[in-house]
Amino acid sequence: METAACKMTLQEKLNILADAAKYDVACTSSGSSRRGKKGYLGNAVSSGICHSFSSDGRCISLLKILFTNECIFDCKYCLNRSSNDQPRATFTPEEVCTLVTEFYRRNYIEGLFLSSGIMKSPTYTMEQMYQAVYLLRTKYKFNGYIHVKAIPGAPEELIARMGYLADRMSVNIELPTTEGLSKLAPHKKPENLVKPLRQIQDGITSHRLAIGKDPQMERSNSSKYLPHTIFRENPYRRLPSGSDPVSVHLPASARCQAHFVPAGQSTQMIIGATGENDLQLLSTTQKLYQMYDLKRVFFSAYVPLNEDALLPAIGTAPPLLREHRLYQADWLLRYYGFHAEELLSPERPNFNILLDPKCDWALRHLEYFPVEINRASYADLLRVPGIGTKSAGRIVKSRRGGLLDFQHLKKIGVVLKRAKYFITCNGKMMHRIPIKEDFITRQLIRTDSKKNWEIEHPQTYRQLSLFDDFHFQSEITMEDSHKSILGQL
User: Fold this and answer.
1) pTM for the whole thing?
2) Is 265 helix (H, G, I), strand (E, B) or coil?
3) How far apart are CA 433 and CA 456, in angstroms?
4) For residues 236 and 302, what is the distance between their CA atoms, to the nearest angstrom?
5) Which residue, of 138, 143, 336, 424, is most buried by count of CB atoms within 10 Å of its CB?
6) Would you tell me how many other CB atoms lie within 10 Å of the CB of residue 64?
């Protein structure tokens, strides 16, 4: 197999390893800001360098590849598991550098997302990935955004050194419960998955303390007005120690000049491969934010790829709408002051998939509504469906100059097709609406039916190729593709 892989062209490797990376969604690129420097290639933008998206909403402006799809493990849900008979390929560190720099110069990409299967051992794999990123930063002077997966089981020193080169690092916990992990990936131990998460968190905390910043990752400015967020009510946060467990592995000059994982860390959970309910998923998400101060938790709707009695049958539709609802609920945890245990309960452990999670919560707590727009606090306004962080702030600011009515709210940006069931202006509702759960539920489901159908029926699951051009009339030849990679076009 290795001999065949060595004979592959760079084009053939790219076709295999770019396609193999499409099931990893934890590749957001916001949170890191770095200006261009003389003699260096590229920069990183804090507002997010991802400018184009595939049809299912995933970012495609990063070069998203696996270093290898070889793997010594046999996770039941993974396409690249060792027991699957499929083409295997492995990049060299220099090949990764060639792809990144040449694609960047042609404005195909703006950064790199690098993950990998496990070849030979976690240590060997992490060494190869580190070598690629080190060459990019030093030899090729690449100053753009880089997101790298940390390999559980790799030495702490390698993860530490990678943290000073990458903008973001992530460790996929894959499944939200130990039971699910033991069924589908029995060789993976929860303690080994969370160990690098803790190490990266400690490194970020220590570095932020060293440069005089709050050790906790920055959040949305709107969150500072909320009295009870999951980040402030954190029973798990460890007090920072006096030592820096990460930077001890680096020379003093490198520690002073570099930033450790400035865009924070993230993780990913697979949705639908096992039988966890939404409450379990959201509770795990909340604990991950509290315990490891993650920037993002990503959800990936499981696409059945392998035949196994413990997995959904091949051909089963991915739970895309459920994935969408979990992302909306995640937003409520991070920016709206909600907690997992109030959004869901053991009696109702799953969201109504046809409703926005905030609407679902509001309908189960109609005793809090309607809310009077001209008197409600900022925190109470955030709990109204159809009112976001920006519109809530505008309401608080605008009503200082006088009483607001529904026309004002529409101009402010309130989504009245949802909010009208839950608010009053000057003591009056927008229409004569009965405050009854069944009635409002039917109205909201009808309002969102078209959007829900579009989420469940995307045009394609195919990850876009770097050579896609849907407006180009002539056929793109293999020679053109090959020249593009090697910089001959």
Assistant:
1) 0.82
2) strand
3) 30
4) 30
5) 336
6) 24
